[in-house]
């Protein structure tokens, strides 16, 4: 049954019923749902079943057990088999693709929010385009391109940044004026638009066919797939995977991969210790039309009107039109039903109506189109909109690939490749720090927190996010004892790994972590000078001329103790610096991997049990003469119960010294101006101390053969191919020009050489300053050549900010600041 969309609008506003369903009785409703479900699973899937209904019993053992038969599990199994690991068993609770993969829209957007996710999308495209030749089963893959339209100047600025990122990644993207948009999508209304971007490399595929093709190719190599298997318990011995208990028996295994999709969190609860997989399903809406004459090609580009929160793609000669609404609805408040298979959720036209209005405005022809179904299906989302990947911290040889945030087809092919490579080789070849599942604490696996947070993460797919964006929902997960004092003082809070941290402190009282306008440090109409700059400037000057107090409770702290020298010997093995120093010494050091690259950056203090002081009424305070921003200062480690009286004492007695509360933005600007780099923000697990300008940390001469020593010794002899550099931006007007916020392209003598990392306003130097990576890539071969200090300093540099290049002066060491 079908009906014109204009008729749906009339019914929706009057009778509040769905005329195309005809009847609200469950039996009639199931007939309609079954019809659409069968269409979405595609004729090809019904014609070929990769997993026979009658299978022998599950094996007693396997090298790898994969839980979940959606895009993620099928991809992991395929890539393991391609790497020669064929003793792989995939366990699916119902049928292959029956969770959320079967109803995915199948969009593949090449440029993602992180470099590793962009690489995942690239691998997915390469895989799907070649998979039919391997398996003999079509995937429906095609490069249809995508058209992104802009309603506002800010959106157009964000698209200009995207075009630069595409170019850096070796992909094409074309900025378009408003008069050019209809050449790519003749159905759209353009009177309210200011421009757009066409991306020819974006693509789409049939999700069910992709999975079946992966299954068939994996089976050809020897991988086994079993349906209707309930995983009941994941077994461990000595903190390592040992086996899996199912409703059909026990399987001994060496590795376990949780590809459970929206069940991923539940699967994490089946082991001891519990594995935290922070994701939660939300309702996700789209509608499908009958074919109409204007859609005359399968390569009709995907349309994304992100200001309207909508997208549209060709679907069987008609359109599939979906939305990422600003405030989503969490699904399954009572838990996912036990037999949820190829099912949809109850539609809610009142919830969908604002998105439907946007669809009709952007594509007026939809008003006359015949609609087959409004579809509402569950998709899992994570607290920060990034995928969950990697080996979990709780159990060795337990991996996760889940939480794709409605991008499973786009990212799943590549994520499976990375996980398989990690299992086989013992480490990934890419830096995955921004998507590593270890980035979350156990408290962020709290179900109530996840339910609140994901209502916001859905809409962030299409929101213009400022680099200092902060979430509104799921806040106050961790608050230090000083939170009430700072809140009363006017602090505006941000969040880091669930911890509330002051960003800056206003003179007037704030409302928790919100600004007066309720935008919580958001910026409307600004990619340039932010509204809090003068506040941060006063905090900066307060630190340089007086005393600034910053709550750093969110920084991790560990205390190692041993009866003898065991703790020292362990740290000597883990750290590249010499830790065996006299009591009272502070050593800033890295903990590296076997490649000599950073796994951790930390300060190690050698203490004995008597090195504590009393400050006022607070006893047992550890006081260390160190900061992480280049300024003189103290780090006070205070027992929680003593924090407020000590803070009050400091603020009272510090009045004569100009004491003031400061936030992390001022702290950030202080450390940038002094060339103090931070892990993750500036260097990652693909960088060594020599490349990060921290050669002083490396003590190759110490007696213990620390992790990464051999690699560093070789690099010291052979030289480096990349180097982090300090830059001073020239000819840039802080007041009026658009600002750099990190991730800008750097050019040396006209050739792209790297990206900026941390960038800020240098108040003493009176200009924008920041860090960035310099490389020397052969334009013909793409190989990285060796560089040295002379190479770095001899080049002419420019930094591109939204299409405009500014000259920049490089420095290898801390600028002279008086």
Please outline the helices and strands.
Blueprint: E1 3-4, H1 5-14, H2 26-41, H3 43-47, E2 61-67, H4 71-82, E3 88-91, E4 107-108, H5 115-135, E5 146-150, H6 153-168, E6 174-176, H7 181-184, E7 195-199, E8 203-204, H8 207-221, E9 224-226, E10 231-237, E11 240-246, E12 249-258, H9 264-268, E13 280-289, E14 302-305, E15 310-315, E16 318-323, H10 349-362, E17 370-381, E18 388-391, E19 398-402, H11 408-425, H12 447-457, H13 483-489, E20 491-496, E21 499-505, H14 533-545, E22 547-549, H15 566-574, E23 586-592, E24 598-605, E25 613-615, E26 618-624, E27 635-637, H16 643-653, E28 659-661, H17 664-673, H18 709-718, E29 722-729, E30 745-748, E31 751-762, E32 767-775, H19 789-794, E33 797-801, E34 804-811
Parallel strand pairs: 2-3, 2-12, 3-9, 5-14, 12-19, 22-28
Antiparallel strand pairs: 1-17, 4-8, 5-7, 6-7, 10-11, 11-12, 13-16, 13-17, 14-15, 15-16, 18-19, 20-21, 23-24, 25-26, 26-27, 29-32, 29-34, 30-31, 30-33, 31-32, 33-34
Helix pairs in contact: 4-8, 4-11, 5-8, 5-11, 14-17
């Amino acid at each position: 049954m079908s009906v014109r969309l204009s008729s749906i609008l009339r019914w929706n506003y009057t009778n509040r019923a769905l005329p195309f369903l005809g009847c609200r009785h469950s039996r009639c409703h199931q007939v309609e749902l079954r019809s659409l479900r069968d269409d979405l699973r595609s004729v090809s899937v019904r014609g070929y079943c990769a997993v026979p209904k009658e299978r022998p019993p599950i094996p007693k053992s396997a090298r790898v057990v994969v839980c979940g038969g959606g895009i993620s599990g099928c991809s992991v199994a395929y890539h393991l088999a391609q790497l020669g690991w064929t003793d792989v068993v995939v366990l699916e609770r119902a049928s292959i693709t029956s969770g959320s993969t079967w109803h995915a829209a199948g969009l593949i957007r090449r440029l993602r929010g992180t470099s590793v996710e962009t690489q995942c999308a690239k691998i997915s495209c390469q895989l799907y385009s070649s998979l039919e030749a391997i398996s003999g089963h079509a995937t429906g893959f095609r490069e249809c391109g995508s058209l992104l339209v802009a309603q506002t100047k800010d959106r157009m600025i964000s698209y200009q940044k995207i075009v630069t990122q595409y170019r850096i990644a070796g992909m094409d993207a074309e900025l378009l004026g408003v008069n050019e948009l209809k050449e790519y999508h003749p159905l759209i209304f353009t009177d309210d638009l200011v421009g757009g971007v066409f991306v020819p490399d974006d693509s789409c595929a049939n999700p069910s066919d992709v999975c079946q093709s992966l299954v068939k190719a994996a089976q050809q190599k020897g991988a086994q797939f079993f349906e209707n298997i309930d995983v009941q318990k994941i077994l461990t011995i000595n903190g390592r995977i040992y086996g899996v208990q199912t409703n059909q028996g026990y399987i001994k295994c060496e590795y376990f991969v949780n590809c459970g999709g929206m069940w991923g969190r539940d699967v994490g609860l089946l082991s001891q210790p519990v594995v935290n997989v922070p994701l939660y399903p939300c309702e996700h809406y789209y509608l499908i039309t009958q074919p109409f004459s204007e859609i005359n090609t399968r390569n009709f580009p995907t349309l994304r009107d992100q200001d309207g929160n909508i997208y549209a793609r060709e679907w069987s000669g008609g359109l599939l039109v979906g939305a990422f609404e600003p405030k989503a609805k969490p699904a399954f408040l009572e838990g996912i039903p036990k037999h949820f298979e190829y099912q949809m959720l109850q539609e809610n036209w009142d919830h969908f109506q604002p998105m439907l209005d946007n669809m009709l405005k952007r594509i007026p022809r939809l008003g006359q189109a015949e609609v087959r179904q409004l579809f509402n299906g569950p998709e899992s989302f994570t607290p920060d909109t990034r995928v969950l990947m990697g080996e979990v911290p709780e159990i060795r040889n337990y991996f996760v690939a889940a939480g794709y945030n409605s991008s499973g087809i786009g990212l799943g092919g590549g994520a499976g490749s990375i996980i398989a490579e990690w299992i086989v080789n013992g480490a990934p070849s890419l830096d995955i720090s921004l998507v590593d599942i270890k980035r979350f604490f156990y408290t962020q696996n709290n179900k109530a927190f996840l339910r609140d947070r994901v209502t916001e993460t859905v809409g962030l797919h299409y929101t213009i996010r400022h680099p200092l964006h902060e979430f509104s929902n799921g806040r106050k997960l961790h608050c230090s004892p000083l939170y009430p004092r700072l809140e009363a003082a006017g602090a505006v809070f941000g969040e880091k790994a669930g911890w509330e941290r002051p960003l800056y402190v206003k003179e007037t009282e704030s409302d928790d972590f919100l600004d007066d306008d309720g935008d919580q440090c958001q910026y409307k109409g600004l990619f340039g000078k932010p509204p809090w700059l003068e506040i941060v400037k006063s905090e900066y000057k307060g630190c340089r001329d007086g005393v600034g107090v910053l709550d750093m409770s969110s920084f991790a702290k560990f205390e190692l103790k041993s009866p003898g020298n065991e703790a020292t010997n362990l740290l000597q093995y883990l750290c590249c610096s010499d830790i065996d120093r006299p009591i009272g010494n502070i050593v800033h050091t890295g903990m590296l991997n076997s490649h000599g690259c950073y796994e951790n950056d930390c300060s190690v203090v050698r203490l004995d049990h008597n090195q504590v002081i009393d400050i006022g009424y607070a006893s047992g305070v550890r006081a260390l003469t160190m900061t992480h921003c280049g300024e003189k200062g103290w780090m006070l480690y205070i027992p929680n119960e003593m924090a407020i009286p000590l803070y009050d004492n400091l603020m009272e007695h510090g009045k004569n010294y100009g004491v003031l509360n400061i936030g992390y933005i001022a702290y950030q600007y202080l450390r940038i101006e002094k060339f103090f780099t931070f892990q993750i923000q500036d260097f990652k697990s693909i960088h060594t101390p020599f490349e990060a300008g921290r050669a002083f940390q490396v003590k190759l001469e110490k007696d213990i053969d620390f992790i990464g020593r051999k690699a560093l010794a070789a690099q010291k002899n052979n030289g480096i191919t990349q180097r982090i550099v300090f830059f001073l931006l020239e000819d840039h007007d802080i007041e009026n020009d658009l600002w750099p916020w990190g991730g800008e392209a750097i050019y040396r003598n006209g050739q792209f050489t790297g990206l900026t990392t941390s960038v800020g306003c240098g108040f003493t130097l009176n200009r924008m300053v920041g860090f960035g990576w310099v490389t020397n890539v052969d334009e013909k071969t793409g190989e990285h050549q060796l560089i040295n200090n002379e190479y770095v300093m001899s080049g002419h540099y420019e930094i591109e900010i939204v299409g405009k290049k500014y000259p920049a002066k490089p420095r290898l060491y801390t600028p002279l600041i008086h």
